[in-house]
Amino acid sequence: MHIQSTFRASQPNTSPRAGVSDLLTAMQPAAVTLFPADAVIYAQGEAAGPLYLVEFGTVRLCRLTADGRRLVSAFHTAGEVFGFEAGSEHDSYAESVDGAGIRVLRASCGQQPTGSMLLLALKSLARTQNHLMVLGRRNANERMAALLLDLAERQGDGKVVHLPMQRNDIADYLGITFETVSRILRVLKDQGVIRLRSISDIEILDLAALEDMCD
């Protein structure tokens, strides 16, 4: 779905499902398709068109540079919609991280962008802008803190963050090395800021400390 209109929204609802119910009503949702871990949902350069709703699991959006390096530009979790493009082709490719259930949303013939589409596109744009600010103005420790806070808010728990993605995914998302990701998590654990429940579950013990790192 190409959203090229200029639009504004005051105080948008930031909950993952905000706008999704209206979008499902307005569009033609397909049945949920399961994409196993690392399966490609769409390719970079593929013709854009439908939107994609994450029913469960996690999706990563990646881009290959001219020299073959991978950049991870976004992670999408349950209740989030992705696939918005300014042009006619996808400028990145989408993959399932951990086995994701995806519902394809197709517009009816001649359908114009609805308010719910614009809201979701705005949320996606705002998240991208925030991530670019983190990459441009934060050091490695602050980038990790920002990621943990972002996921805690989006997952709705606030204390336990689930990290289904591999450490190399996190590294490519934050623009740091695999070793730096592991080192920062160890430092945060030793400082009593987090507790590593497992390789993929992190308990936030000192929320204020994480927030201070991002101030």
UniProtKB/TrEMBL annotation:
One of its GO terms (molecular function) is DNA-binding transcription factor activity. It comes from the Bacteria. SUPFAM superfamilies: cAMP-binding domain-like, Winged helix' DNA-binding domain. Residues 138-208 form the HTH crp-type domain. GO terms for cellular component: cytosol. Residues 22-83 form the Cyclic nucleotide-binding domain. InterPro entries: cNMP-bd_dom (IPR000595), cNMP-bd_dom_sf (IPR018490), Env_Response_Regulators (IPR050397), HTH_CRP (IPR012318), RmlC-like_jellyroll (IPR014710), WH-like_DNA-bd_sf (IPR036388), WH_DNA-bd_sf (IPR036390). PROSITE patterns: CNMP_BINDING_3, HTH_CRP_2. The keyword Transcription applies. Pfam families: cNMP_binding, HTH_Crp_2. Keywords: DNA-binding, Transcription, Transcription regulation. CDD domains: CAP_ED (cd00038), HTH_CRP (cd00092). This is Putative transcriptional regulator FixK.
